[in-house]
């Protein structure tokens, strides 16, 4: 069987699946249940200074879609509301009981060196394997000058990271906020500050819905609501892109990445690892389905690796990164055409409607022997893939490369590119 063990920023764990810093890692009881179930590690819910935080009720909002519940999840919960001493004692107890698991502690204190200098030795004394700097929380704490208020300012990210590297022997993981225009700015700042790794993404600032009876954003606290942090399967595409952005930068080559954001299945995890992640962190899926999902995660990933001939995670980690390029580096002469498997087609007509109304009128609606039949008009098909996505039958509509007889060429070389070296600016026309 495939070897799922990892060493991430010097931290060892038997598999890459860690529970993210969140309600599931708020106390010893939950963490012990998770580790007994087989999770490779946890990031303990964010610790702060005493006196403890005061949370509100209710705290969670969610969006379902297509019959599935919790496609998107939102929370307005803050960092731990339990005393610091209690958390530290429990972390020490858990690490003693599970020495082979990764126990990382998330931290958030005011942006003052003395505050960080004071809390770091307390965490170090627990025997924890590392710390994660929470520079991402977008609600409540950010209004107090912490969380994403720090993560959105690269100079602060670098400064606090440097403080932590000076005052602890533990590996320092910097958790990045997605609530920023360019994820590379705080990532590079963390790297300059000496971070041993980065983790991303934290939650996205959001309002998931409005209660039209109470006329307030949800979740409603009394009669009012606020913006929260959005996560769950719906944010996976955003997280994958940001992870890939960092992984493909030559100036941060070798910087370990812990991928977070909408990971619910082993397939999701494999995608994040292929995009450069060394570990993956999961929260919403565990909150939705419980800790036993770890069995499906580890078995599914291991079986897939066996089928592909990957003995270790390193064998495919980052393999997709070289193929994650800028748009202008794509082959502009490559073309695909849709093909409809008539044996699988149920004649619902969704492909025709989508193409006729909103695309390129490339699917003909016919009558053959009194039966509806849909066929692709090759001359009109531009290979946009819309039909294959709206078709309700798996593999009924597939995309196939078409022979164009044209060589590989990028937009940089296209005659309509006004920035091409040999282009005539007086005669070149820019395509819409």
Can you give keywords for this protein?
432 residues, alpha/beta, four-stranded antiparallel β-sheet, 28% helix, disordered C terminus
Shape: globular
- The amount of beta strand, in percent, is 15-25%
Assembly state of the chains shown: single chain
Main pleated-sheet profile: 8 strands, parallel, barrel
Helix coverage percent of residues?
A: 25-40%
- Helical stretch count? 12
Uncertain stretches of 5 or more adjacent residues = 426-432
Structural class: alpha/beta
> How far is the N terminus from the C terminus?
52 Å
Strand tally, please? 20
Can you describe this structure?
With 432 residues, the protein is α/β, with parallel strands linked by helices. The radius of gyration is 25 Å and the shape is globular. 28% of the residues lie in helices and 21% in strands. β12 and β13 form a beta hairpin. The C terminus is likely disordered.
